[in-house]
């Protein structure tokens, strides 16, 4: 008795599940607690550092008397936050792409 091919939706679910399992196994072999914990910390720092740097630079400019009624602190804090979020998002996209194109051989089940 031959097996029927999986519908496209089920093939996609099987592929994603296989990728997640391989990611967890790689993390276990490296001794990582959880594969996403490190990413969360890295993205947090990627957002926090530009935000704080923008706020400090803005505060320094405000105390120097540069500019008029606009608050440099708030402006540069928001600019740093936006840059940090953009950088974190791009890094997560790159990491996700790298996991998808991993050197691990694909599962036979995911290909059906």
UniProtKB/TrEMBL annotation:
InterPro entries: ATPase_gene1 (IPR011744), ATPase_put (IPR032820). The keyword Iron does not apply. The chain crosses the membrane at residues 32-58, 70-92. The keyword Transmembrane applies. Pfam families: ATPase_gene1 (PF09527). Keywords: Membrane, Transmembrane, Transmembrane helix. This is ATP synthase protein I. It comes from Plasticicumulans acidivorans.
């Amino acid at each position: 008795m031959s097996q029927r091919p999986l519908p496209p939706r089920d093939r996609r679910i099987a592929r994603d599940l296989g990728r997640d399992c391989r990611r967890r196994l790689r993390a276990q072999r490296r001794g990582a607690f959880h594969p996403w914990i490190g990413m969360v910390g890295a993205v947090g720092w990627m957002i926090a550092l530009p935000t704080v740097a923008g706020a400090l630079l803005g505060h320094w400019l405000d105390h120097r008397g540069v500019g008029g009624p606009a608050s440099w602190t708030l402006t540069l804090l928001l600019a740093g936050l936006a840059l940090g979020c953009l950088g974190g998002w791009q890094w997560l996209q790159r990491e996700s792409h790298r996991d998808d194109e991993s050197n691990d051989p694909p599962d036979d089940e995911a290909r059906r």
